[in-house]
Amino acid sequence: MSSTGDLSAAPAAFLTALAALRRAQCRPELNLAELPAPSKLAPYAVALEAVVTGSATGLAGDPDTELATGRFILLYDPQGQEVWGGDFRIVTYIRAELEADIGKDELLGSVAWAWLVEALENHCTGYHNAGGTATRILSQSFGTMAGSQDAVNIELRASWTPDSADVQAHLEAWSEMVCTFAGLPPLPDGVLSLPNRRRN
């Protein structure tokens, strides 16, 4: 697993965190790959990208269609950062396309945020200083494209500070979130689900 920073001189805490990410058991529908890590946010960082396509779900429709995408970034600053409230920070992004009528639901953003919080709690992750935004994006077509179906995307941007370098459960919780945004069951008991929203 590549990352920013010189791993030969990396602090033990960051190496522990990288090992924890390697142990994560993510859902098989998730195509997980490494990305170039941001170099200006912290002295050490690692970034992952996730994609769930139609071919991974067995659902009807175009197998190449991306049902959900996401990014998971783990930042580490040995000196800590006050706004983080710790040495580590996890920064995430998830995007999924929904059916247009679902975008009218005013509770959609609240449900997305509640799912994030409950996913972290259900995976027994210790964390604090969580924050984020949920955004609905409506795309309407006009003129020669007027016959195209309206599209709605939900974007969830969130970050939180793990209580320790053992971040395995954090990656597993996030991977479950990406699959949920893609409309994949099942969800653990007590987790709020976004409505069934896959486009045809």
Query: Which stretches of 5+ consecutive residues score pLDDT under 50?
Result: 195-200
Cα(first) to Cα(last) distance is 37 Å
Structural class: alpha+beta
Q: Counting H and I runs of at least 4 residues, what is the number of helices? A: 4
Instruction: Give the SSE string.
Output: HEEHEEHEEH
Strand content: 25-35%
Helix content: 10-25%
Based on CA atoms alone, the radius of gyration comes out at 18 Å
Arrangement of strands in the largest sheet: 1-2-3-4-6-5
Mean pLDDT: 81
Q: What's the total count of β strands?
A: 6
Net shape: elongated
State the major sheet: 6 strands, antiparallel
InterPro entries: DUF3000
Pfam families: DUF3000 (PF11452)
Protein name: DUF3000 domain-containing protein
Organism: Arthrobacter hankyongi
Outline the structure in words.
This protein has helices spanning 12-23, 54-57, 108-122, 168-181; strands at 31-35, 44-53, 66-81, 86-98, 127-139, 151-162. The protein has 200 residues and is of the alpha+beta class. A 6-stranded antiparallel beta sheet has the order 1-2-3-4-6-5. Helix 3 (108-122) runs antiparallel to helix 4. The longest helix has 15 residues, at 108-122. The radius of gyration is 18 Å and the shape is elongated. Residues 195-200 have low confidence and may be disordered.
